[in-house]
Amino acid sequence: MARRRQAQRLAAHPGEPSHGPLTAEELQLAVRNHSMPLEALRNDVTPPGLHYLLDHFDIPAIDGSSWHLRIGGAVQRSLELNLRALRRAPSISVPVTLECAGNGRSLLKPRPLSQPWRLEAVGTAVWTGVPLAYLLSQAGVDEDAAEVVFTGADAGIQGGVRQQYARSLPVSEALRPDVVLAYRMNGAELPPQHGYPLRLVVPGWYGMASVKWLSSIRVQVKPFDGFQQSVAYRYQQDADDAGTPVTWIKVRALMVPPGIPDFFTRERILAAGPVMLTGRAWSGNGPIQRVDVGIDGTWLPAQLERPAAPFAWCAWSLPWVADAGQHELSCRATDASGATQPLEPVWNYQGMGNNVVQRIKVTVQ
Ligand SMILES: Nc1nc2c(c(=O)[nH]1)N[C@H]1C(S)=C(S)[C@@H](COP(=O)(O)O)O[C@H]1N2
Ligand SMILES: [Mo]
Prior knowledge:
mainly beta, Sulfite Oxidase, Chain A, domain 2, Immunoglobulin-like, 2 domains, six-stranded mixed sheet, five-stranded mixed sheet, 6 helices, binds the ligand Nc1nc2c(c(=O)[nH]1)N[C@H]1C(S)=C(S)[C@@H](COP(=O)(O)O)O[C@H]1N2, binds molybdenum atom
């Protein structure tokens, strides 16, 4: 009996894939970290509160008036800046589509136990703040520097390791002109859950790179080997596989589910006749080249609109004349690198980068 209990506990261990029903631990994470309701795909910029959210630990308590950011390590001059100094520095505003690398995880079989996203862990916001490259040039990055490490104020334990959330970027990425230290989101003060008072935003990279609640930036000569870099966020086949790092966002399209939902199943009910199917598509690997919409398995090219910025999603649309009966709708994007979405999920141990096509069941009456 004790043995069985232990086995059950092990089955709910994060990282161990499960064939079983959703666990209490997954539900606990899911109610803390929400996705974007698919109908919010109708907005160019995701309204406040509808952007997806992923916080590993607790939202830290930070007093903006005494908070400051330290920049140090392999630099000529270490800097210490408070919020007022940052707000006086040159600023940019960048529309960016952020997506969690674990998006699609709960559709994998077996299901890696972690935040159980379906397909909606995405959002687009306009991030305003200081270009990281500007502050790094003020500090003067040493010639032999390799990486820049960003550490958040949030702390916890993951994989048995006590840590503050931290991630690094290669110096070349950190110096891109569109990488921003943001203190505003959609024109308003950064909300507590999205990183107040300051967060990094790395356009084109999966969300884990965009460190929230920044407390320090450290330039390093050696590669960073923190937990969120060397253990988490890797494409692995099993626990012993060192794997490859998760970096750029893979291509994906999503559709606004047409018609009205059934409350419990979320299946769609639609009146027969013309309907405009719409959605958004994005990729970290070059502009979206095409979106195809599948109607009962027949693919038709959608019309694309221009995105607001290189790493913001683009809108797509396709008119459809719905005839009575059951239908399955899907959408599939292709980016400039030629990459497209798989029709079946591609499994990996941490459930990363599952950009399988979305399928929506519709009953037309
Ligand atoms: N300090 C800190 N930064 C963090 C995280 C975190 O838990 N702590 N989560 C990361 C992950 S995995 C994602 S997907 C994004 C989510 O950003 P959002 O909550 O603003 O959508 O923040 C990233 N930055
Ligand atoms: Mo994430």
